[in-house]
From TrEMBL:
Lcl C-terminal domain span: 568-678
Lineage of the species this protein comes from: Bacteria, Pseudomonadati, Spirochaetota, Spirochaetia, Leptospirales
PANTHER family: LIPOPROTEIN (PTHR35812:SF1)
InterPro entries: GH29D-like_dom (IPR059177), Lcl_C (IPR011460)
Location of the GH29D-like beta-sandwich domain: 194-274
Any Pfam family hit: CHB_HEX_C_1
Organism of this sequence: Leptospira gomenensis
Protein name: DUF1566 domain-containing protein
């Protein structure tokens, strides 16, 4: 009972505890006596005893004070004290706010308590019993709380904000935190040292001092010296200009407007202040920004763009070594003089007629009002001589010719022009490709041709595409149309290789030297001369008799890098074919008509159509390949199979699903047909037709193949249909191949 009592009443004083214990002890004695009197039958009771009327002469046991109470042992007691709650304040102990628009208008304080309790947020006081209560309420243990203090809640200047934590019944103050709040509604100002003005003896170092009339104090200063305003946000971020940290110099020989702005810790941003510094220390500095042409003809002129850092008068002169009299060269026939403002660009025209042939030093001399002189110069060359072509070589080998056709390989890659002097490398003339197998010669669009200057005197024309087989053609550079070959002075090329303002280079190609492997035609039957099927193919030598030839055409696929570019690969020949023809696109496992269908193509449509594929995918090429072209006849024939039953299955369906085969279509090759009636074989060069045949004949037609599996040549490459009118005109299209 005593122990329990102590747990329940920790604040009872010692005297009260003693009286309570005595009463309880006496009660215990009486209870024992009564319990002996009331013992039930058959039970041994405790003997009665009589209390004496006086305690005199009675000896008491140790611990017995003779009071009549029964001594109760008292165990050691640890004093139990109530535990107060504590604040955990996580925000700044000093903050700055302003009631000015655009400044920092409020501050949020964050805190928590370690026990359930009650809080009050008071302003204008350093105690928890005065001031104004701005917020209050119950708070749960370990709950993060945020209170916002607006500038309007505070008086101007510095004041104390008190955060108080009380017991849940608000009778006991557990903990408190003092926060200093500064309200500053005034913007700071900035002073310059030294002040603005004109400086001639030394370049000033500009220092900036920020002063805040409010209580917050300056936070940051930003400046600009390019004539535009600096900028600062309320939190001190530089939105325009440079944050000031130490003194800085301004430009010499210049007028500089230094503009500054400041912000204080309460977010008040000052207006922009400006101080102007005119600095002119030493001789003027002449800057030549540009020369429009360093090489000119006598009939031309060049513009010099220049400026001076100091104002003064100027004159342009030719030759000489400086601006001193006697060594300053000669004046122009029409004097070039004038006045220049400081740091103002001036464009001066230099006439070529006043210059001598070769190099000329052009000098500008400027004199300030203080007789200080500055100068600068550039060299301008006068050149009235036309450049010449020293050589034109084909793939670094044979020379090109304007007189006779030079035999070139189908894989010829480029031409190299070498000139007699440095040329204008900004000009990149490209030739036009003409087919002379027809009459008149027909333009063959060649979209992949490019021009590049290897150096100032070497120009390379790259074809970037395989040439047609048995092809008579020329490249034509028109020197009457821009761009044309010119030297740096603007003189147009003349002399060798030039005739009638044209460069006309003649070529011819032979058959493709590349070997292509023979593949299985998939034919399973053999026939006699009458077309009857033979019972056995043994020893006939026909296609079906040869069962060991490989077949390499695969089903359509795509490179993962180019998933929309469907291709059909031949693993035997090593060739890659564009799966869908012109005007078709891949969809749901087959080729379907695209949004831009192509009804037909001439030979002159087919060549650029396939070459254009090399420019797809930003120059990476269709399916990542850059060797696309119209196939040769032997490449086209390598596709053919003869296993079908309907007569139009020469191009296999599995390899080319959705392929157009419904209207006697034929497909161009880049193998030209020759008109000579006397084709012959040069036995000293087995397999090659005499070039005399190609040189003397005309390749007005070109070979084609059809879905029927055969090959023929058209009556003219400018046509888009075949020979006859039965049952129609054999519409012509194109298949494209890449190595």
């Amino acid at each position: 009972m005593i122990k329990t009592n102590r747990k329940q009443h920790v604040k009872i004083n010692k005297k009260n505890r003693f009286h309570t214990s005595s009463i309880l002890g006496l009660g215990l004695v009486v209870s024992i006596c009564l319990s002996n009197c009331l013992m039930g039958e058959g039970k041994k009771g405790i003997n009665f005893f009589f209390l004496p009327t006086s305690t005199a002469g009675i000896a008491y046991a140790p611990g017995d004070d003779g009071s009549g109470s029964i001594p109760v042992p008292t165990p050691p007691v640890t004093p139990i004290t109530a535990t107060n709650g504590n604040l955990n304040y996580t925000s700044a102990t000093t903050f700055y706010v302003s009631n000015t628009a655009g400044a920092i208008g409020y501050y949020d304080i964050s805190w928590s308590a370690d026990k359930n309790g009650f809080y009050e947020l008071r302003t204008g006081t350093s105690t928890c019993s005065s001031g104004t209560v701005k917020a209050s309420g119950a708070i749960a243990s370990s709950t993060s709380t945020t209170n916002r203090l607006n500038a309007s809640d505070l008086g101007a200047g510095s004041s104390t904000v008190k955060l108080c934590l009380l017991s849940p019944d608000t009778t006991t103050l557990w903990d408190d935190v003092s926060v200093t709040a500064v309200r500053d509604d005034s913007a700071p100002s900035v002073s310059f040292s030294p002040a603005g003005g004109t400086y001639g003896s030394s370049i000033p170092s500009i220092g900036l001092t920020c002063t805040d009339t409010g209580a917050a104090g300056c936070l940051k200063v930003a400046y600009r010296n390019d004539g535009t305003d600096p900028g600062l946000t309320a939190t001190g971020s530089v939105s325009s200009g440079t944050a000031y940290s130490s003194a800085f110099a301004v430009a010499n020989n210049a007028t500089t407007d230094v503009k500054v702005v400041a912000v204080d810790k309460a977010g008040n941003v000052s207006s922009v202040s400006t101080s102007q510094y005119v600095v002119s220390v030493g001789n003027p500095t002449i800057t030549i920004n540009s020369v429009s042409k360093s090489d000119i003809r006598g009939t031309d002129s060049s513009n010099i763009n220049w400026k001076s850092d100091l104002a003064g008068t100027y004159e342009f002169r030719i030759g000489g070594t400086n601006c001193a009299a006697g060594t300053n060269g000669s004046a122009f026939s029409t004097a070039i003089t004038g006045s220049a403002a400081a740091n103002t660009n001036i464009i001066t025209n230099i006439p070529g007629a006043d210059l001598a042939a070769g190099a000329n030093t052009i000098r500008v001399c400027l004199t300030t009002s203080g007789s200080n002189v500055g100068s600068n110069s550039r060299t301008i060359n006068r050149d009235d001589t036309a450049p010449a072509i020293s050589s034109i070589t084909i793939d670094g080998g044979p020379s090109a010719s304007t007189v006779s056709n030079v035999t070139v390989n189908l894989n010829t890659d480029h031409l190299d022009f070498v000139f007699s002097e440095d040329m204008d490398t900004s000009l990149k003339p490209l030739p036009k490709h003409y087919d002379t197998g027809t009459s008149p010669a027909t333009l063959v669009p060649w979209p992949t041709i490019t021009g590049t200057w290897v150096d100032a005197q070497t120009y390379r024309v790259s074809f970037n595409g395989k040439l047609p087989e048995w092809h008579l053609f020329y490249h034509l550079f028109d020197m009457t149309a821009d761009p044309k070959f010119k030297d740096k002075a603007g003189n147009v090329v003349a002399g060798a290789f030039i005739a009638s303002n044209q460069i006309k280079l003649l070529y011819k190609t032979e058959s493709d030297p590349a070997v292509i492997r023979i593949t299985d035609t998939r034919q399973t039957s053999c026939f006699d001369a009458a077309g009857n099927t033979l019972g056995s193919c043994a020893t006939t030598g026909q296609d079906a008799d040869n069962s060991v030839l490989p077949y390499g055409l695969m089903v359509p696929s795509s490179d993962p890098a180019y998933p929309n570019d469907m291709i059909t690969v031949d693993n035997v020949t090593g060739k890659t074919w564009k799966t869908c023809g012109p005007g078709y696109e891949w969809s749901a496992g087959t080729c379907v008509v695209s949004a831009t269908p192509v009804s037909y193509q001439t030979w002159y449509d087919a060549i650029p159509y396939c070459l254009q594929l090399n420019l797809n995918n930003s120059g990476a090429g269709f399916a990542g390949k850059t060797t696309w072209r119209v196939p040769t006849l032997k490449e086209q024939m390598s596709l053919m199979t003869y296993e079908g039953t309907t007569g139009n299955e020469g191009i296999p369906t599995l390899a080319f699903p959705g392929f157009v085969r419904n209207d006697y279509q034929r497909y161009w090759t880049m193998t030209n047909a020759m008109s000579s009636t006397q084709p012959n074989v040069d036995y000293a060069n087995p397999g090659q037709l005499s070039m005399a045949v190609l040189s003397n004949g005309t390749s007005w037609g070109a070979w084609t193949t059809s879905v029927f599996g055969g090959g023929t040549h058209t009556k003219h490459k400018v046509n888009y249909a075949g020979w006859g009118t039965w049952p129609n005109n054999y519409i012509l299209l194109t298949m494209c191949v890449a190595d």
